[in-house]
Amino acid sequence: MCGIVGYVGRKRAYPILIKGLKRLEYRGYDSAGVAMIGDDGGLNVYKSKGKVADLETHCEEKDTTGTTGIAHTRWATHGEPNSANAHPHYSASGRLALIHNGIIENYVTLKENLMKRDIAFRSDTDSEVLVQLIEYIMLSNQLDLFQAMQVALHQVIGAYAIAVLDREHPDTIVCARQSSPLVVGLGADGEYFLASDASPIAEYTDRVVYLNDGDIAVLQLGKRLNVVSLSGERQHPKVRQIDVTLGQLEKGGYPFFMLKEIFEQPQCIRDCMRGRINVEGDRITLSAVIDYREALVAARRIIIVACGTSWHAALIGKQLIESLCRIPVEVEYASEFRYRNPVIQPDDVVIAISQSGETADTLAAVDLARGAGALVMGVCNAIGASIPRLTQTGVYIHVGPEIGVASTKAFTGQVAVLAMLALCIAKERQTISDELYKSMVRELTLIPEKMERTLQASEHIEKMASIFTYARNCLYLGRGYNYPVALEGALKLKEISYIHAEGYPAAEMKHGPIALIDSEMPVFVIATRDKLYEKVVSNVQEVRARGGRVTALITEGDEQIRHLADHVIELPDTIDCFQPLIASIPLQLLAYHIAVCKGKDVDRPRNLAKSVTVE
Ligand code: M6R
Questions:
Q1: Does domain 458-597 correspond to CATH entry 3.40.50.10490?
Q2: Which of 75, 196, 305, 309 to mutate to test the pocket of ligand 1 (most atoms within 8 A of CB)?
Q3: Where are the domains of the chain?
Q4: Is 424 a known active-site residue?
């Protein structure tokens, strides 16, 4: 989704803004732009379609002086990706420039009203309406920018994070947020950084303020941060410490972030368990479970809301919680849940899973559940994001920033957290024996080492990948805990290689998809030695009987499937419910290597955004 960067200080703004935009490239975008108040007092706006590098080329001969500026990467919603629709947008008189993330729902009405007042628009975007409205209010009521924004935003319906420059006040940015994240970094010497997430800020300062919905903030060089609510009340923002290192934001020798993040998984799962599983490796402590023990023990139902990969993790969480805690669990797409008037009871516990903690639909589902009186718990990665702040409790997955658009380490982190959560709740509810509990906790501690062994298959998978680049469709099959792994494997392939892929519960295949099977259709089967192994073997036979080409993920040493499959990838053995932590890795690698073979931009797949902050 769109990205915002801003700087007010004593240094030259342009290089900081460009570097910041590059840090945000992972979010997905189609055009970029920058605005600075130059040394001569002029407000300069430069924009271009394409990558940040294209914007840099466009700016080569331009005046990029000035110590105050804002910059933006756009992911088109209203109006095609071109330089006119790229942000920043000038106001009619050219005095203001604005950048916006989000969607303005009533922009048509606002635009019509402004056009009746002879205000001409230069773009097809909903965003431009904001800058025209703000300037119109400012000039017709003789207000300053901050006051005009307070009035204007009362007329706006929708989601926004905005930052505005006023040529008349060259040391100031005024910004505001509603349902779209905005972080202010407090730098040295009275300078300020602004961004849609902490990644462009992290190399300059570790002191940040996360703005809340309805906040309007004035960032003025050398002056105290001034934050006021839309209704005019002064806010007392909490300064937080961010814990993101530069190394985490860079590729560290890997060709793509996605590969780096796949290889980071063993360490990520260690980090995720650190301080939660004791050194003896037989007890898990989660503060969310301690703090909300009563509600969790008494929960009549758990509803998990999520989107995309996080929804796949939720499907694994459902099986874990139902089998260990004996609490019924429903898994919902947040986008469906929020609009279908669901029954939510005060003794329900709602778990919102989101890597970014900013997904618009998941956030709306959180709001809905809170409104209905349920206990809402977040399972997120991005520290301080909206979902962790809006939920009563939560468990961070602690896997570090995930930059690749295709989620990898966040998925396994989510599964690890859900496994720990299920074990903790089961212990509290006494639905698990001591012996089983301890053996499962011990097995969980062995997962990172098993992930390391699994990663050794990368070269083998890389060689195999070229065989599949011709494919137009692929089928992924799995059962039980491996069914969501099949869904996730298919999603990874679609996202980055643009090959159509479907995940199916293996037994469901004969109810339809079997019609598609022929020698042209690669079939990937997760066939590890678990409770449903024999049944999956039968499903593999069914594929073979129709001439299908099978690649099977098998447990180390399994000879039975080896003879039925065209290709095999061996995995270390573990208990059924932890198998997704291992089995998802070769499927991530497969998708990665196929996409690389096809020459795709793995970290920035077309049309996709890392953080989906619009519904
Ligand atoms: O940040 P979230 O976990 O809420 O994001 C949800 C989905 O947008 C995300 O998982 C998406 O499906 C990824 N591109 C998957 O690789």
A1: yes
A2: 309
A3: 3-248, 252-455, 458-597
A4: no
